[in-house]
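subagent[fold] <- orchestrator: predict structure for attached chain, return tokens only, no commentary.
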Amino acid sequence: MKTDDFDYYLPEELIAQTPLEKRDSSKFLVLDKKTGNIEHRKFNDIVEYLNPGDVLVLNDTKVIPARLYGIKEETNAHVEILMLKDLGSDTWEVLCKPAKRIKVGTVISFGDGKLKAECISVKDEGIRQIKLIYKGILLEILNELGEMPLPPYIHEKLKEKDRYQTVYAKNLGSAAAPTAGLHFTKELLEEIKAKGIIVTTVTLHVGLGTFRPVSVDDVTKHKMHSEFYMMSKETADILNKAKVEHRRIISVGTTSVRTLETIMSLYGTFKECSGNTEIFIYPGYEFKAIDALVTNFHLPKSTLVMLVSALAGKDKIMKAYEEAVKNKYRFFSFGDSMFIK
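subagent[fold] -> orchestrator:
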């Protein structure tokens, strides 16, 4: 299975640069994974496709203002870091640019020394482990000095920080938003619940995998970076009951999919747990946890195109993407939505 098999043509002007004014007004492509039938709707029509008893699983991770610009103390050279993973005790895994300047012992200063970072370990692919030095509350400092870590294909400045957060974001720790959830409003979620759909949450802190392209020709040789996930007992109980009663489990976003499938693969059931996952889902994978998926349109040759192809079949996904391009859907993080039912 070749990475090039998951390529598709995308005109650059279809890459969404800014969020729509109304979250739930995006286009909504509905794909029947059994028949391949495609419908074109608006996102707030999603209520029509959900049945009483369905369980909708949201990822409640919250994005931190994780992009920081600083200078090396010894040379005043400019450095950019992207905070990826909290390792505990003020130690973080970060992506550095330019990485070659950052060696063990290097100290980077941000905001005239309000925050400092000392490199304590050098990893591959521009990754470093740093120890943070500061006084006060880290999140307050990041809110002052940091920027929302928008993906590299977005060139416009974000006017409102909260537009790169879901309305239900709660658990801080992501380097990127779980973008399928950006389409939901609080009012739409209330409407969904009023119809008898159960809404529950898991947490997966989105990390480096979101920013890393697949660089190998053979799909099976790609290695995913690990991301932290967490499931509560309440969510596990809801999901196990749905499984027993043969009710649909609908994942909002590929991050929720990876959490649910990781837990089911490890334990054969849903349970209260946390850990790190490197699960890589591509065609041939047998889904154990989910029945349907709300998702955005993903980058060509990405692990996310591979994941949705595993769920609906590569040919059906490529046809749906072709339709989306023809109908001028907006793609990627701030783009339009798709429901694989």
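orchestrator: received. Logging for downstream: The radius of gyration is 20 Å. Helices lie at 138-145, 186-194, 233-244, 254-267, 303-312, 314-326.
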